[in-house]
Amino acid sequence: MQKVKMVKIAVIGTGYVGLVSGTCLAEIGHQVVCCDNDSQKIMTLKEGKIPIYEPGLEEMIRHNVMMKRLSFTTSIEEATKESLVIFIAVGTPPKENGEADLSYVEAVSREIGQAMDGYRVIVEKSTVPVKTGQWIKRTIEADNIHSHPFDVVSNPEFLREGSAIEDFMYPDRVVLGVESERAKQIMVEVYEPLNAPLVITSLESAELIKHASNSFLSLKISFINAISRICELVGADVEVVAKGMGLDKRIGPDFLRAGCGYGGFCFPKDLLAFIKIAEEVGYDFKLLKEVQEINEAQKMAVVRKTEELLWNLNNKTIGILGLAFKPNTDDMREAPSITIIKGLQSEGVKIKAYDPVAMPRAKEVLEDVIYGNDPYEVAEGSDCLILLTEWPQFKDLDLLKIKELLSRPNIVDGRNIYQPEEMRKLGFNYKSIGRP
Ligand code: UGA
């Protein structure tokens, strides 16, 4: 990676996207100020601690603060005055009807408009509905009392939690929705050090690329999950089917892992929002509604499989391994574990659980769960063990010890991390997803 030219950048919002993007932009040589109205959060960051779990991020923040390329503030005015490019990375949580709540984006746009003292590029980084770029433009125009020139750019992010730094540093593509040559030149300079393929297009197309990409990835997961159900009905193996499909370059091997459903703050929320947007512009996106339904059914299939092993669920004790929506994160938002645990509890099951990092977050959303200090404590005396997150350490468990600790040797593997044949040899009653 070669530094080409330093750009002064402000990132408004130090949530997941903002903090990772801001830090990585500093790492590639830019002068970055990250801004948030949560003064507690800014204080924590100034002390070199981070409010989220993301491998490598804390060290990278410290390094860039030390190099004086990264700083933090609570003042949008100060950040706007200091910078040429301003990334808006504030939250867009779902409203009750599924639409994205854009009130934070609007409020920040206003403040930027009022604080601008010269030309600025305002970049929408938050995941927003198509046409938001135009709304940002109008909002800034209305508050831009001194009529300073500015451009709005859409630059959707494709970071995955848990590998966000790598995703930022080595992206498959950088999408830039621009409306002027001036903004295009500046944004190309910002991303030049990454040497990544650029897709330069209109604001609307850039916004749609984000919706379409996340929806397509969810669709791929639901597709393979639907195939897993058919595999179960005909005695085929979904792992082999996925491999056989994925070797076709037109299909590709990624996001074809059958499991207990997708979760997280992105796919469920973005899918809902996209269905809503499509509806508003006059298209009934039935395909995506089906993707959602398959995902819900996939979570409940874990409850059904457990019932098949235990007959009656009432008064049984079940140990859960893994709570986060995927490994390498403590994020519990829309985690399949929540639906599955609540489903089991409604049948009278007592739940014990362990997750390497997500237990503090889980305590905020789950009730009546006994947390163990390790997987063995959770297995002890349980009638069944259910694996819901494929943390690498679960692959290396002493399974004979687990079997001895369980009161009955039952395992439901919601992520297909063990081999059916081996599990049977070890004497487990073992159920997984879409495998004979
Ligand atoms: C997702 C996208 O992958 C990112 O490109 C995007 O930037 C991000 O949303 C966002 O919009 O902010 P993320 O939610 O961090 O990233 O997680 P993923 O790694 O995509 O996994 C999502 C869910 O799908 C997880 O619950 C995972 O277990 C599940 N999954 C993934 C499967 O069940 N099977 C697979 O084959 C892949």
| CATH C-level class of the largest domain | Alpha Beta
The count of helical stretches stands at 18
Radius of gyration: 24 Å
Heteromolecules bound: uridine-5'-diphosphate-glucuronic acid
The domain tally reads: 2
- How many β-strand runs? 14
Q: Which band does the percent of strand residues land in?
A: 5-15%
Average pLDDT, rounded to a whole number, is: 95
Which stretches are poorly predicted, pLDDT < 50 over at least 5 residues? none
Strand order of the largest sheet: 3-2-1-4-5-6
CATH topology of the largest domain: Rossmann fold
Give the CATH architecture of the largest domain: 3-Layer(aba) Sandwich
Which outline best applies? elongated
Write up what this structure looks like:
With 436 residues, this protein is of the alpha/beta class. It has 2 domains: 8-201, NAD(P)-binding Rossmann-like Domain (Rossmann fold, 3-Layer(aba) Sandwich); 215-431, Rossmann fold (3-Layer(aba) Sandwich). Helix content is 46%, strand content 14%. Helix 1 packs across helix 3 (57-66) and helix 12 crosses helix 13 (336-346). The termini are far apart.
Relevant terms:
single chain; 436 residues; alpha/beta; Rossmann fold; 2 domains; six-stranded parallel beta sheet; binds uridine-5'-diphosphate-glucuronic acid
Short description:
The chain is of the alpha/beta class. It has helices at 16-27, 39-46, 57-66, 76-82, 103-115, 132-143, 164-169, 181-191, 203-234, 238-246, 267-280, 286-310, 336-346, 359-365, 375-379, 392-395, 399-405, 420-425, and strands at 8-12, 31-35, 70-73, 85-88, 120-124, 150-154, 174-177, 198-201, 317-321, 350-354, 369-371, 384-387, 410-413, 429-431.
